Amino acid sequence: TDPRTGRGFHALVRHADVVAASRTPEVFVSAPGVTTPEPARWVRALFGDSMVNLDDPRHADLRRIVSRAFTPRLIARVEDDIRQVATRIVDEVLARRPEDFVGAVAAELPYQVTCNMMGIPEQQRREILRQVNHASEHTGVARSRLRVPGRGLRALARMQAVIAALGRERRRRPTDDLISALVTADVDGKHLNSRELGAFFSLLLVAGAETTRNALAHGLHLLTDHLDQRELLLSDLDAHLGNAVEEIVRYSTPIIQFRRTLAADHELGGPGGPLLAKGDKAVLFFGSANRDEAVFTDPDTFDITRSPNPHLGFGGGGPHFCLGAYLARQEMKVLLRELYTRLPDLRSVGEPELIPSNFDNRVRSLRFTFTPPGR
Length: 375
Prior knowledge:
- By secondary structure, this protein is of the alpha+beta class.
- It has a single domain (10-369), classed as CATH 1.10.630.10.
- It contains 14 helices and eight strands.
- A four-stranded mixed sheet has the order 1-6-3-2. Strands 4-5 form a two-stranded antiparallel sheet.
- It is globular.
């Protein structure tokens, strides 16, 4: 039951149902919001709608602009940048011997790659990251007396003001970065305005960088707890790394759920199935779908040789399939290769500290250790 409205919702927990809902966007609509609680109307008017909260045709228009901005040249440059950032992170780990894997490694790679891709100046990055953390720390968390009213919105406003200013500057003087491509794009005469640019950057950092961060943290812990899988991975990184990334995403499922609203009456699974009425809420539980016994053999077993692995860690398909899925996979593969090549006995220490949330499987911190080369 939704604690704010007192109304119930339909829980979609089977793989087939989550896929069907994801691929029937004309019935399972994203507006007014996919998170719990839904964003207030005035918040959406002030800050703009994130793409995940939009439906076609507006969603298609924005997605088309963003897709066109990801040119082959930009993608090639990002791939090279991921390798350079991963190398630098491991260099710093060796030099500084930090204790927290999340802050020093898992969060650093996707954040720096995203900032490099967008063209965010170095001197503004730490302040933006601080505002992002303030803005997102209570997503999917029940309201309580401990929550500081408006703190997240103030942080979001400050961050979006910085991005809007950069957008205006790049519109006047474009450079070779993603912000320039987004604000100068001419896709049927359209480009991203300041609010849309700010909303897209927030989406990249929260839905993109944070989910990659959490998958990397869960991945290190899984490969520490399952020594047989770690030994198999290290025996042939080329053969197993791609499958290992897919299994980490399936097993940990960084995004737990998205909400949809029924735009029409609908019989789930076809004629004779449960009736979902127009206006009802349906919640797509990706973690449950990723453990569906009808699709995955021994679903509670962490198995990096699992094939096929049709997990829904990046969504169930359809128009809202994650735009950053390729980027997230590349970041995970490159960083895990760099880590386990240079620090083969890398392992977590203790359990990960999780942040309570019904939206994402978020890791606040994870202690780790390794033996420096030559010892």
